[in-house]
Design goal:
Number of strands: 13
Strand order of the largest sheet: 1-2-4-9-6
Shape: elongated
Distance between the termini: 34 Å
CATH architecture: Sandwich
Number of helices: 2
Largest sheet: 5 strands, antiparallel
Strand content: over 45%
CATH topology: Immunoglobulin-like
Mean pLDDT: 88
Number of domains: 1
């Protein structure tokens, strides 16, 4: 009976590793907000310390003002990562109370589909992260990845 229990525990651990803990399984990805909302974020629920990671921000075209999209990210989250690239590159980055505001130029031909901005980075600390980002003067979303060693 004890041996059978051990096999069950091993099977559960292997299943968890395949589904979540490796960061590559079908339930390892998460979305903060709902697709189709004015603003939503795709991110990995489980990430690895000092391994490549990314956040993908999505904004509906009505978030554009004067040919610009302004996305802010809380500095508490940014302090725990090393940003390697932002695509597309921001036109400007401005500091505000507890956040950095990234301004992106948007051409007229890009206004029919939701706009995507990708931050590529590495986590510099281990454990639960609490992040928040949003559209300047618009909706915001919270995200909570967990970083493994």
């Amino acid at each position: 009976m004890v041996q059978r229990g051990g096999w069950v525990v091993m099977a559960v651990l292997i299943l968890l590793a395949l589904l979540v803990l490796t960061g590559r399984g079908p339930i390892s990805q998460a979305t903060a907000g709902n697709r189709g909302d004015p603003f939503w974020i795709d991110y990995a629920r489980i990430a690895r310390f000092e391994a490549p990671a990314e956040l993908r921000f999505h904004a509906r075209p009505d978030a554009i003002a004067n040919g610009q999209l302004e996305v802010w990210v809380a500095t508490d989250f940014l302090d725990s990562v090393q940003i390697e690239a932002i695509s597309p590159e921001p036109e400007a980055v401005t500091a505000a109370a507890g956040r950095l505001i990234y301004t992106f130029a948007v051409s007229d031909e890009n206004v029919d589909e939701p706009l995507a901005v990708t931050f590529r980075f590495q986590y510099e600390t281990i454990g639960r992260k609490r992040g928040e980002a949003g559209i300047l003067n618009g909706p915001a979303q919270s995200f909570n990845p967990f970083v493994l060693p």
